[in-house]
Amino acid sequence: MTLYSATITLILVMDPLGNIPLFLSVLNHVDPRKRQRIILREATIALVILVIFLFFGQYILEGMHISQPALEIAGGIILFLIAIRMIFPHESHEERARRDTDPFIVPLAVPLIAGPSTMTMVMLLASQAPYNRFGLSLALMIAWSITTVILVFADALRKVLGERGLTAIERLMGMILTTMAVQMFLSGFEQFLHA
């Protein structure tokens, strides 16, 4: 996977535009001047978690005897489910409850930025290119930087794009992610057949 495609995939999985309403609702009671600091803190925590998974996730997988095709197929399924939720959003009781909790690590850093899907994607990219950790680290830093900038300016973006604009962009990203998920699933299945 190229730097460009890895970066785009990570941005789509992190879903910064889709997270704008969630971030704003979680931080609704926080002073607007403190919001940006909280977002930066939570984004930094998420980055540390993702870097750990980038460098040590492979050892976790090897310890659990999870093969490359299994990881690709699982990653494809998870991405597909995320994409479906982006296209057809539905808020669960658990997500509503998360909004009322203290925004330290949970729910902003984990699972909104560094969620299970992002962790899986980082491990999957690392297993596909085990000798290109520098390139993957760069892709992760670029994706994280873009996500953080979008979330820091969440208030302004919501005013410019409006709720309908944000929804339309998120659904478009969901459709792109769907095709990537199907391709990942097919690649994993093809590897399994050849193994």
TrEMBL record:
Keyword Membrane assigned: yes
Subcellular location(s) of the protein: Cell membrane
Record carries keyword Zinc: no
Recorded coiled-coil stretches: none
GO cellular component: plasma membrane
Top-rank lineage group of the source organism: Bacteria
Predominant cellular place of this UniProt entry's protein: membrane
Keywords: Cell membrane, Membrane, Transmembrane, Transmembrane helix
Pfam families: MarC
Segments passing through the bilayer: 6-27, 39-60, 66-84, 104-126, 138-157, 169-189
Topology within the bilayer: Multi-pass membrane protein
Family recorded in the similarity comment: Belongs to the UPF0056 (MarC) family.
The protein's name: UPF0056 membrane protein
